[in-house]
Amino acid sequence: MNAIKTKVCSNCQTAFSCGDISKENKCWCNDFPPIFTLSESADCLCPSCFKKACSDKIDDYVATITPQKALTNKALSLPKAEKLIEGIDYYLEDEKFVFKSWFHLKRGSCCGNKCRHCPY
User: Which residues have a Cβ under 8 Å from the Cβ of 33 and sit 6 or more positions away?
Assistant: First the structure.
């Protein structure tokens, strides 16, 4: 039995569906990296606000990474994602995928292809 709830985003006040919305009994937000928790005073965020908050948190973390720190970064210890998320793992440029630093950090090593956002 799916437990879908309608919630209101604590950031933008938009209504959205939250809860067990798939056959795996997991919410859409479980596709994102588990990198932060909302404060106790805030409720869930809508998909758009959640993605932005997640991206901002990742960008702040990536800004602290040096090639030495990249080898033991916290992205390596997170559960492996089943799919890539546009804006988090990559962006499109001229219809081509450009992988962001977060993607490379999750992979855990340099591939040697001189990637634009390689943190290593």
Answer: 54, 58, 75, 78, 81, 88, 102
